Automatic annotation (TrEMBL):
Keywords: GTP-binding, Isomerase, Nucleotide-binding, Nucleotidyltransferase, Transferase. This is mannose-1-phosphate guanylyltransferase. Residues 357-470 form the Mannose-6-phosphate isomerase type II C-terminal domain. Residues 4-287 form the Nucleotidyl transferase domain. It catalyses: alpha-D-mannose 1-phosphate + GTP + H(+) = GDP-alpha-D-mannose + diphosphate. Transmembrane segments: none annotated. GO terms for molecular function: mannose-1-phosphate guanylyltransferase (GTP) activity; mannose-6-phosphate isomerase activity. It comes from the Bacteria. PANTHER family: MANNOSE-1-PHOSPHATE GUANYLYLTRANSFERASE.
């Protein structure tokens, strides 16, 4: 039984300011309006047996991910179980935990197809054909990966050295995994024709993978077993005891298992593939350029400029007399970078984190399980937000020690609790929540509601939220 395993998370630092840790690369929307995660689910469902797809993601991304899945017409959420990580622990723990879950709760004959959620593949028929080749190898006991035939001398990817052909199957043995090479070495790999890029996608029987892990990395295997046993629930979403989860080594499946396994194979891919690892890669997705090689998504005016990529969802961007630039404009940040140095955008995020700047993690619009809020003003004496609450959702029962709040409904009807009093607020009606007063906001209707929230006080941080009840299982503070 083929069960795709979607690995979704990560910071996506090279695609800042669109990708941020609270809303990372898998949730980025491409020009067609679909996210990378949605596209990954789409191709997973196309090859999954019985519609079963297993997702491993961070706890903070669970509700965002469910929303993406719920929008897919073929998705049955009862067949899309989630394993939630309390922190990042690389791909080996994630995939091995998925193998244990699949064997115990889906099928004893589970064959896993591991798909990172931040890759783009457009040739779905070719993808399905290569998955069938990889599955045939996996069912024979091979630990199989997909290799991407290189199109240029890339130094940002690991490589796989192709070994002998496998009799009776459309695949090759893996001679060696190779680290990210220097430019001269990458050029030699490209010319030689016997190396492929390591895609990070895999196919193997779950039982064969666990046996290989027990032999190749017994310490990792034992830590994963302990973590699996410490699951707080085996019903989706599955969560793990934090201490047991953090006791697992932070190691990739390549280092832990694949580099040391006895039976490992690679299927050279016949499909198109991009890991969209930089803004240069994003720019190349745009189908059309003008006569000067410029590509634009959104609104832009370019004068005597060439080979630039400009993305702006709302504002007009003007560029005069420039070349070879990436310009990305969002609500609260603008990136200007040399196209050939786009990989170094992650250094911007490193600096933001060092300075403890919120732009490293959050957008102006912040997504929450119940909906979202957009910061309209953030001053020393007040903070103004626009809240959107989804139908049937409710914010936590909470209070604040250092701020009061004013709520005005601008669209829809809200159910409000202030202290011990509960009442309805219609559009163009307001209420006031004093400091240290319990309050809660709920959407009892079938449509989104929108409110303006004005905070007054001497501190407006999210850590001045004391939660007494919360439908989404969030901690008492924060």
């Amino acid at each position: 039984m083929l069960i795709p395993v979607i690995l979704s998370g990560g910071a996506g630092t090279r695609l800042w300011p669109v990708s941020r840790s609270a809303y990372p690369k898998p949730f980025m929307r491409l020009a067609d309006g679909e996210s990378l995660l949605y596209k990954t689910l789409d191709r997973a469902l196309a090859v999954a047996d019985g519609g079963h797809v297993l997702t491993v993601t961070g706890r903070d991304y669970y509700f965002l991910t469910r929303d993406e899945y719920a929008a897919h017409p073929q998705a049955d959420l009862d067949r899309l179980p989630f394993l939630l990580e309390p922190a990042g622990r690389n791909t080996a723990p994630a995939i091995l935990l998925a193998a244990h879950y699949a064997l115990q709760h889906i099928s004893p004959d589970a064959v896993l197809l591991v798909l990172p959620a931040d890759h783009l593949i457009r040739q779905l028929d070719r993808f399905a054909a290569d998955v069938a080749r990889a599955r045939a190898l996996a069912e024979d006991g091979w630990l199989t990966t997909f290799g991407i035939p290189p199109t240029h001398a890339e130094t940002g990817f690991g490589y796989i050295h192709l070994g002998a052909a496998i009799a009776g199957r459309e695949g090759r043995e893996i001679s060696a995994f190779v680290e990210k090479p220097k430019k001269e070495t990458a050029e030699a790999y490209l010319a030689g024709g016997d190396h492929v890029w390591n895609s990070g996608m895999f196919c193997f029987r779950a039982d064969a993978l666990l046996q290989a892990a027990a032999e190749a990395c017994p310490a990792v295997h034992q830590a994963v077993l302990a973590c699996h046993a410490a699951a707080t629930s085996h019903e989706s979403p599955v969560e793990y005891a934090r201490e047991a989860f953090l006791a697992q080594p932070d190691i990739s499946i390549d280092y832990a298992v694949m580099e040391n396994a006895a039976r490992r194979a690679v299927v050279p891919a016949g499909f198109d593939w991009s890991d969209i690892g930089s803004w240069k890669a994003v720019s190349e997705l745009e189908a059309e350029s003008d006569e000067q090689g410029n590509r634009v998504r959104g609104q832009a005016i370019l004068i005597e400029s060439s080979n630039c990529y400009i993305q702006s969802d709302k504002r007009m961007v003007a560029a005069v007399g420039v070349k070879d630039l990436v310009i990305v404009d969002t609500d609260d940040a603008v990136l200007v970078a040399d196209r050939e140095r786009a990989q170094q955008v992650k250094l911007v995020v490193d600096r933001l984190r060092a300075d403890k700047h919120e732009a490293a993690a959050f957008h102006q619009t912040v997504h929450r399980p119940w909906g979202s809020y957009t910061v309209l003003e953030d001053a020393d004496d007040c903070k103004v937000k626009r809240l959107m609450v989804k139908p049937g959702h409710v914010l936590s029962l909470q209070k604040h020690h250092r701020r009061s709040e004013h709520w005005t409904v601008v669209k829809g009807m809200a159910k409000v609790r202030v202290g011990e009093r509960e009442f309805l607020l219609n559009a163009n009606e307001s209420t006031y929540i004093p400091i240290d007063t319990l309050h809660r906001l709920e959407n009892p209707t079938s449509e989104d509601i929108h409110l303006i929230e004005v905070q007054c006080g001497d501190y407006f941080g999210e850590d001045d939220i004391v939660r007494l009840e919360d439908r989404y299982g969030r901690v008492a503070r924060g």
